Amino acid sequence: MPNQVTAPPMRQAQHALRLDLVRSEKASVHLITFVVAAVSTILITRAYLALTGYPKIGGDSGLHVAHVLPGGLLMLASIVLSFSYVGRGPRPIAALLGGVGFGLFIDEVGKFVTADNNYFFEPAAAIIYVVFAALVVGAHAWRRHRPLTDEEKVANAAHVLVDGLAGRLPDRRRQEMLATLESMGDVRGARQLHELLLSVEPRTPALPQHLERLWQRVPEGFDRIAESRFAAPVLGALFALQALGALIVAVGLWRTGTSYAVIMSGVLAGTATSLVFVVLGLRRGRAGDRRSALDWFQRAALTSLLLTQVFLFTASQFAATAGLVVDLMLLGLVATSRARVRR
To answer: Where are the membrane-spanning stretches (predicted)?
Structure first.
């Protein structure tokens, strides 16, 4: 009897707390745009300030307009753009503006975590890195463990139809969505959306679609490598480059003295762990278990991303940025290869 009384209110509470969010199939593409724009903005900003002697906007008047302020305005523009227009058109531009704005914002994190507003606070680089690493890895794990449902795919098709009805749907995107709907069979709404998309007249892609297509070529390139006979050599070369770069930095730190002992230990520990995972992956690959081998390779790349590069960022931002690029390439290639194995 008590369960009969309390069950309906509990179900009502669960329903009230549920957000009913529908995931976008282009989320990873927009995330790449956001991260690349943010990281590029940080590097360009730091390089510009170093070359110009760290000027202050406002001069000697006592005022200083920190670049966190235009960063906030760009993020505001991204948010306003996202909820002011329907369809997919504004998404690539919003991701670009938001990435640049967030890069300007997070670049000054040292001022917000120190009592003396120290822009040159050394651990700030590691904080910046951890934020981006957590964003990329969290999104990757979320999509991997929860692929889009059929209902979400239909909802994405309906979103694409909005662009078609407004006369702003490129033919390539239209053909992609038609093929997706055809493969879904009798899922509710798929057939009706297919008929509506057939009646839509495609248009020449606008600038946002060109930007989206540019980033779409990244996973397409990974897919071409994964299906070629060069997949294993490319993986091996990237892992070797990753380990060699980390060891070179570790040796450089060792020569500077004992002040970097903790950082050097972290770099060596992360590199050693990644190499162990690579060896285990090679053993599984030779045994014929390709899926398990790729799982170990993915663990090796994630270990480098979340451990080795964090310590590297504290010592050398530019070396860690190069390592970050290599790790992202490894994760992309491994993820594509795992998807092919599953298919």
So the answer is: 27-48, 68-86, 93-113, 119-142, 230-254, 260-282
pLDDT tens digits, one per residue of 47-56: 788 778 877 7
> Is residue 71 a contact partner of residue 109, using CB atoms and an 8 Å limit?
no
Q: Which domain holds residue 285?
A: 227-342
Q: Which residues contact 305 (CB under 8 A, 6 or more apart)?
A: 133, 136, 137, 324, 327, 328, 331
**Shared domain check, 237 and 214:** no
The predicted-structure confidence for 38-88, as pLDDT tens digits, reads as follows 877 887 887 788 778 877 766 566 677 788 899 999 999 999 998 888 777
Q: Give 120's contacts (C-beta < 8 A, 6+ positions apart).
A: 110
Q: 37 lies in a domain?
A: yes
C-alpha distances in angstroms, 298 versus 210, 277, 320?
31, 9, 19
Cα dist. 98→86, 139, 278 in Å? 18, 17, 36
Q: Using pLDDT thresholds of 50, 70 and 90, give the confidence band for residue 98.
A: very high
User: What is the number of domains present in the chain?
Assistant: 3
Are 177 and 190 contained in the same domain?
Answer: yes
Residue 33 domain flag: yes
Could you give the percent of the chain with pLDDT greater than 90? 6
